[in-house]
Every structure is written in structure tokens, then in C-alpha cells.
User: Which sequence fits this backbone?
């Protein structure tokens, strides 16, 4: 196996997708070369065709898609012309796939080791005992805890990060020549992501496996890939070795991708507090999730609440909005204590605190038009009707940089960014003083997320509204926050002005969080790990 | 990049030409499979017959116009029944009575079951528990036997028939509504509505109901068949629609003896029941396939 020979050679690949009974070309003539042992990063926004290409590299087209032209030569065999039976011999054995959501890809009714063994047994690569040993070996290489026994667990008994590594182990069970990674760490927290990235990187290097690494996260791809292909609308924008691509992108689109994440806001100290959360504890049944949390949001400022999943960020939002009345402590809004339960709050109080959600897809009623979605709070809270209502809706759309044409649209006819803008417009419709933003950009592409952040900043400047901004993404925090509250396991571990929290000395957890955020430079991952290792091994 | 001024819109909507609801329905119809077409044609014919019954029936519904059990002839195309009433006319009026009563019953069971199901989901907690257990009790008793008992106690009138079957059938509707609404009520847009202080009625009818409509509409078709069959069965047993009102179930029973003489006339009423049931199922299958968004 010489490093020089080509493993995958795609030429003139064209794929069509079906929507509303007509076929549209979604991949428009892609050429791709991958050598043995090489890692190629595919990046681009959603809809760029990354996943479709990743699957096509296996000779597979999703239901509703069809490969119309081109060759997909894998080790000299054209997968596009191979029948199902022949492809099945290759899948799992020589090419395997790691999906974005490991939780959805594992069968919840079988133990991890049994699922690991499926492919090697089916392909007749190993016996059952051998499988078991191979699994333990791979679990160890991927740094899973207790590699000897973790295979006996069911998928729900391990954490998300562990499951993603178990899935990588499963993909490597037959020692494939090629693995397609489709956003394997997107659903993970930063502190978990870094471990999974390191484990994947080490293991594929040791095994000499080639990989297609699909992601929209530039900083991640910079750590993982030898070479990067930038895609847009199913076409290649540019392609170069990673270091060159980072330091010297040629095309305007690539440059704009690179410029993202550089948004910064100068912090400003707040004058009077609008919202004070004082010693709030809350629990779901017997499980206490918030322990004595105190947060203060000044008028017209942004307080970012940072922490990984399970840290109680969203529960804090629920306690403030009254969906989960606190068991202890009080929430003071504009000088007066807020009634704990939603039911006992006046219409005016409800109006003054609004919320924007993480998933714009589920935050908008799919059966109602934009006009009704935005118009309802205007009517409900401010009592406008008729032409005045229409004018206000148009105004709100304009404030969120959408034109009037959107009024008659259904949510399914909007892009992710447009949906989030409509959600923002709905919140603004009530003319609130505080908006709670729960991870509002994490489901969006980076360029779109950046636009949304700019919009939020502009609205704050114009309307003097305060944000309680919940996020796990520190780049977002830098872009939008005045003050930061770091939460860990239901407690506030550090809080203060942005510059203060982000500069050392940090609390131990803040430090871990900060150092886990991938940076856009080659070798960052190795550096961080090298710095952490001595401590970790001791 | 510089900051976008308010006047400059980042997102301009390309005008999309949206087909009207009628156009879309027509387009879907043109691509419907033959089974769906068959179902639609049959159901439309039944409805027309039911509505126009007085105009197309050769004789009145309950008038004795000939001798008992007359053969098929030009005067009585399908013969006469055990009392000498025209069979064809009774079949035609039967469509009106059986379908009409079944439709009213189903509609009532949907209003009742749907309302309780939505209430259980939106309010949750003990209300959900109490409703759920009460429905369990009702469902534990076999439906036909329960209906027979209640009809014997309360008396076999059309109103009682409709009320009893609607209540018994609403248990199934409750279960379905609760199950599908459960998936919608946890979505963020429902929470957003709650946070804006929307009332119970608004959340139920505007936020949840439109999103669970497709399975409910499909269920309506199937429930209609079941109700219709239950009514026919009850009529056959003598506790359903009472004479002299023409009804397919009782027509089968009243003329059943003819089968012994090789006369298929009583089977025509049974056939009318079967044909309608099959047709509705065809339509429901097609509708479910369309709304579930499956691609072949």
C-alpha cells in the first residue's frame, strides 16, 4: 500500500434531487481525488451538497436522489455502475460511514459490541471472539472509558461523545480503506468535541485510513483534513492543501467564509438592572437542576450564559419565563418580583419578556403564514388591527431585513435564516424589554449565523432591548456579550464583564471551555492536546 | 463588510407562484391511482343518491305498492320486500338514512373525542389521567354488546342510537387525538404561544389542531366505516334504525329468507354496505399516502 496511489477518483459527478415532482440538479459536475490514507475535508453551507457527495462516494444516493452522470472509481471499480449486491460487499467492509447523530444511528435495543460485530461477521472477516478483541482494542484506541466492558452497554447508557466514538469504532471494525464522516461532532459540546476529534484523528492515522470529512465548521476541518474542498450550490469553489487554504484563500466566497467568526463587540457596562435572578433553585421532579443561581441583566445590555449541555442554561430560561417555577429564590424584573408561575403573570409582564428559540423549524407553527405568526402578538398585546396591523407587520419584517413579500409565506417556504428572522420579528412584535435567546444561532450555517448576530446587535442599538443570550459557543459570546455568566452543573461558576471572564486567571471550568473552542489554524488540536496530556496522564 | 442599514433588505423574497388550493387538489387528483378514483366516484355517487333520493326513487319510502316478495319486473326493478314495498326505492332511501345517521354520529364522536383528547394533552396532569382512565373503562367493554345493552335500557330511537355510538366511538378518537397531539404540544411554537399568554382555546384550535388534521381526517373516513357497520349490525339485530324507516342493515334481516329461494335481493343491501366501506378505505389509503409525504 503505497501512499501515492489513488483510492477514490470521482469524475464529472452529477446528482439530481426530486422536489415537488420535478428533478433539480444538486451536484453539478464534481471531480474529486483521494489518495490512500489521506483526509479530505468537504466544507460549505447547508445545501452545498456535502452530504450528497459523501454518500455518492459510497455509490449511494438517498431516496429521492439519483446519480445521473459521472464515474465513482473506488480502487479501480466504478461504484456508479455496480449493482446493489456487489456494493453491499464493499459497504461496511471497505467503505464505511459515520453519521452526524450517533444516537439515531445506533439500534437502541442492542449492545454496542453486538452492533460493532455486525459488519465483520456479515462480511466473514472475523469470528465472534476475534470481534470482541477487535472491539476492545478500538475502544481503547478511541480512549473510551473501561474499554473491556463498555461494549456490554446499550446506546442509552453512554454519553453522546462516547457514542460518537463507539460509532467510529464500529465504522473501523473491518479496517476499511475509506470512512465518510458526516459532521461527526456537530451535535457535541465543545469540551466533548475536542476529545472525539482527537480520538478520530489518532485512530485513522494509526490505521492509515483515508477519510472524507464533511463539516460546516472551518476550525474543525482545519484540524482534521490534509486537503480542503470548498463547495457551494453543488459546485466546487476551490480546492487546496489545508495550510494554503487557510492562509491564502483565492475565491471571494472562501474569504467570506474565513471572515466569519471575527465579529466582535466592545463591552459596555450596564447602568440599572432590568432583570435580577436572585438565588434561584429549580428542579424537575426530584432532580434539582439549578442550585442557587444569581444572574443580573442590565437594561440595554447582553448577558451571555455559557455552559455545555446539561449545565442548566435552558432551565434558567424556563425559570425566568415561568414555565418552571423556581423552588427557591426570586426573579426581580424592573424592580418588582415576577410571579413565579406563568399563569399568575399579567399580560403586560408577558409582553415585556420574549423568547427566541434554538430551532426555528419547530418554533414556527408550520400551518400559519408569516403574517399571522407576527401579527398575532401585535394584535394580542397592542390591540392593533386592520391597516395599522398590516403596516406594523411590514415594519417588523423590515426591521428584521425581510421584505413584505414574506407575509404570505408559510414557514416551509423559508430558509433557516429567514425562519429565525421571523422568530425575531415575532419577539419584537410584543415590543419587549428583555429577549431570552436560547442558542439562536447554533442550528444555522456560520454565514447565516453571523447575519443573525449582526441583526441582533443592530436591534439592540436601535431599540435598547436587553438580551439574555444562552449559548455554548464562545465565538458567539465574543461577538455579542457585554457580560458573561459561566454555568456548570446547575451552578454559576464565574460571572462578570466579558473581558474579565475571558482573560486569565479563569475558573478551572472556564479555562477548559475556552481552550476547547477550535481555532482556525493548522495544528491547534495537537497543541492543545500536548498541553493537556501531562495533566491528564498524571 | 459594513453594517446593513435598515432600508437595505438583506432578504428579498423572490415571488413564488403558489398554486391555489383548488389547483393543487386538482393536480393531486389527476395523479391519483385508479383505486382512489374508484373510491371517489363511488362515494360521490352514494352522496348524490342520498341527497336526491326523493327525486330518483320510483316509489315513496314506506308505501305498500305491491304484493309481498314480488319478483324483479319492469314495474318493480328489484322486486318488493316482505310487506310489498318497492325494493329499489328502499335501497335509495336507505342510502340517505344509513349514511346520514352514520355521518352525524361520526362527526359527533370526533367533536367529543377530539375536544377531550386536545384538553388532555394541553392541560396534562391529573386531567389527562382522569380522562384517560375513564376512557379505558369505556373501552374495556366490547362496543357492540355495550351498545346493545344501552339501547335496550334507553330505548331504540335514532337520537339514542346516535348518542350512544358517538360516545362509544369517541374513545378511539380520543386515543388518536391524544397520541398525535402529544408530538405537537412539545414543540417550541406551542411553548411560544403559552409564553405569550394565549388562552386554552387558541392553543388547541390554532396551534395544535391544524397540525394534526391529516391523521384525523383519515381516521374520520375509517371511523365512518366502523360506525356505519355498527349501525347496520345493530339494525340487523333489530335495535338500530327502526321500521318503517328504510335502512340497509334491517333490509338484509327483513328479507333474509329470500336467500333460501335463491333470490339475491337481500344481498344488494349488504353489497351496498360493502361497496361503500371498500371505497372509503381506498380514498383514505390514498389520502394517507399523500399527506405522509412518502415518496415511492
Assistant:
Amino acid at each position: 500500500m503505497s501512499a501515492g496511489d489513488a483510492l477514490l477518483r470521482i469524475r464529472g459527478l452529477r446528482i439530481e434531487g426530486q422536489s415537488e415532482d420535478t428533478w433539480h440538479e444538486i451536484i453539478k459536475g464534481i471531480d474529486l481525488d483521494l489518495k490512500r490514507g489521506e483526509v479530505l475535508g468537504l466544507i460549505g453551507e447547508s445545501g452545498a451538497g456535502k452530504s450528497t457527495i459523501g454518500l455518492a462516494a459510497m455509490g449511494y444516493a438517498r431516496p429521492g436522489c439519483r446519480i445521473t452522470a459521472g464515474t465513482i472509481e473506488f480502487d479501480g471499480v466504478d461504484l456508479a455502475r455496480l449493482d446493489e449486491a456487489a456494493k453491499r460487499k464493499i459497504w461496511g467492509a471497505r467503505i464505511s460511514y459515520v453519521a452526524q447523530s450517533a444516537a439515531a444511528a445506533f439500534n437502541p435495543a442492542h449492545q454496542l459490541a453486538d452492533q460493532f460485530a455486525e459488519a465483520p461477521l456479515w462480511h466473514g472477516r472475523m469470528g465472534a471472539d476475534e470481534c470482541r478483541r477487535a472491539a476492545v482494542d478500538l475502544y481503547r484506541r478511541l480512549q473510551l472509558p473501561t474499554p473491556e466492558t463498555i461494549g456490554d452497554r446499550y446506546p442509552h447508557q453512554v454519553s453522546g461523545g462516547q457514542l460518537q466514538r463507539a460509532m467510529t469504532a464500529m465504522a473501523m471494525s473491518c479496517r476499511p480503506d475509506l470512512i465518510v464522516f458526516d459532521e461527526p461532532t456537530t451535535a457535541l459540546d465543545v469540551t466533548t468535541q475536542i476529545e472525539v476529534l482527537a480520538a478520530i484523528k489518532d485512530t485513522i492515522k494509526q490505521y492509515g485510513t483515508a477519510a472524507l470529512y464533511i463539516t460546516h465548521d472551518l476550525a474543525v476541518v482545519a484540524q482534521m483534513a490534509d486537503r480542503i474542498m470548498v463547495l457551494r450550490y453543488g459546485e466546487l469553489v476551490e480546492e487546496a492543501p489545508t495550510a494554503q487554504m487557510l492562509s491564502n484563500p483565492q475565491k471571494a466566497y472562501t474569504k467570506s467564509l474565513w471572515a466569519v467568526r471575527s465579529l466582535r463587540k466592545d463591552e459596555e457596562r450596564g447602568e440599572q438592572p432590568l432583570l435580577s435572578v436572585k438565588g434561584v433553585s429549580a428542579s424537575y421532579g426530584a432532580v434539582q437542576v439549578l442550585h442557587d443561581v444569581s444572574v443580573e441583566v442590565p437594561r440595554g445590555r447582553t448577558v451571555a450564559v455559557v455552559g455545555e449541555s446539561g449545565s442548566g442554561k435552558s432551565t434558567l430560561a424556563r425559570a425566568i419565563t415561568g414555565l418552571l417555577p423556581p423552588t427557591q429564590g426570586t426573579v426581580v424584573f424592573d424592580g418588582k418580583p415576577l410571579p413565579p408561575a406563568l399563569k399568575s403573570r399579567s399580560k403586560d409582564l408577558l409582553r415585556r419578556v420574549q423568547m427566541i428559540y434554538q430551532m426555528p423549524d419547530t418554533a414556527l407553527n408550520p400551518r400559519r403564514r408569516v403574517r399571522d405568526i407576527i401579527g398575532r402578538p401585535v394584535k394580542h398585546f397592542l390591540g392593533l388591527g386592520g391597516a395599522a396591523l398590516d403596516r406594523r407587520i411590514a415594519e417588523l419584517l423590515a426591521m428584521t431585513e425581510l421584505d413584505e413579500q414574506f407575509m404570505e409565506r408559510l414557514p416551509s417556504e423559508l430558509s433557516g435564516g429567514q425562519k429565525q428572522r421571523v422568530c425575531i420579528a415575532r419577539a419584537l412584535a410584543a415590543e419587549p424589554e428583555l429577549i431570552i435567546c436560547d442558542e439562536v444561532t447554533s442550528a444555522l450555517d456560520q454565514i447565516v449565523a453571523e447575519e443573525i448576530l449582526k441583526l441582533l446587535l443592530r436591534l439592540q442599538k436601535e431599540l435598547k432591548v436587553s438580551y439574555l443570550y444562552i449559548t455554548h459557543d464562545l465565538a458567539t459570546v465574543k461577538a455579542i456579550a457585554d457580560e458573561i455568566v459561566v454555568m456548570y452543573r446547575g451552578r454559576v461558576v464565574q460571572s462578570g464583564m466579558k473581558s474579565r471572564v475571558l482573560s486569565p486567571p479563569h475558573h478551572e471550568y472556564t479555562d477548559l471551555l475556552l481552550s476547547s473552542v477550535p481555532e482556525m489554524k493548522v495544528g491547534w488540536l495537537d497543541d492543545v492536546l500536548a498541553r493537556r496530556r501531562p495533566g491528564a496522564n498524571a | 463588510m459594513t453594517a446593513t442599514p435598515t432600508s437595505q433588505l438583506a432578504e428579498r423574497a423572490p415571488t413564488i407562484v403558489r398554486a391555489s388550493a383548488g389547483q393543487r387538489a386538482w393536480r393531486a387528483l389527476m395523479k391519483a391511482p385508479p383505486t382512489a378514483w374508484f373510491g371517489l366516484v363511488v362515494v360521490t355517487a352514494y352522496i348524490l343518491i342520498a341527497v336526491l333520493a326523493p327525486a330518483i326513487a320510483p316509489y315513496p319510502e314506506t308505501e305498500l305498492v305491491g304484493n309481498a316478495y314480488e319478483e324483479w319486473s319492469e314495474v318493480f326493478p328489484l322486486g318488493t320486500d316482505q310487506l310489498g314495498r318497492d325494493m329499489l326505492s328502499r335501497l335509495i332511501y336507505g342510502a340517505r338514512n344509513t349514511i346520514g345517521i352514520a355521518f352525524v354520529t361520526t362527526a359527533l364522536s370526533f367533536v367529543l373525542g377530539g375536544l377531550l383528547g386536545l384538553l388532555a394533552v394541553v392541560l396534562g396532569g391529573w386531567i389527562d389521567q382522569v380522562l384517560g382512565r375513564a376512557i379505558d373503562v369505556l373501552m374495556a367493554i366490547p362496543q357492540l354488546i355495550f351498545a346493545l345493552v344501552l339501547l335496550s335500557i334507553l330505548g331504540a330511537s335514532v337520537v339514542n342510537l346516535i348518542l350512544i355510538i358517538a360516545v362509544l366511538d369517541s374513545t378511539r378518537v380520543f386515543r388518536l387525538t391524544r397520541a398525535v397531539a402529544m408530538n405537537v404540544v412539545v414543540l417550541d411554537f406551542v411553548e411560544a404561544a403559552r409564553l405569550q399568554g394565549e388562552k386554552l382555546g387558541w392553543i388547541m384550535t390554532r396551534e395544535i389542531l391544524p397540525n394534526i388534521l391529516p391523521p384525523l381526517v383519515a381516521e374520520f373516513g375509517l371511523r365512518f366505516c366502523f360506525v356505519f357497520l355498527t349501525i347496520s349490525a345493530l339494525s340487523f339485530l333489530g335495535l338500530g334504525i327502526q321500521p318503517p324507516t328504510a335502512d340497509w342493515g334491517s333490509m338484509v334481516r327483513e328479507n333474509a329468507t329470500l336467500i333460501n329461494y335463491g333470490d339475491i335481493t337481500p344481498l344488494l343491501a349488504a353489497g351496498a354496505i360493502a361497496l361503500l366501506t371498500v371505497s372509503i378505505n381506498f380514498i383514505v389509503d390514498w389520502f394517507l399516502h399523500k399527506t405522509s409525504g412518502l415518496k415511492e
About this structure: Chain A touches chain B through 46 residues (CB under 8 Å). Residues 37 and 208 of chain A are 5 Å apart (CA to CA). The two ends of chain A are 38 Å apart (CA to CA).
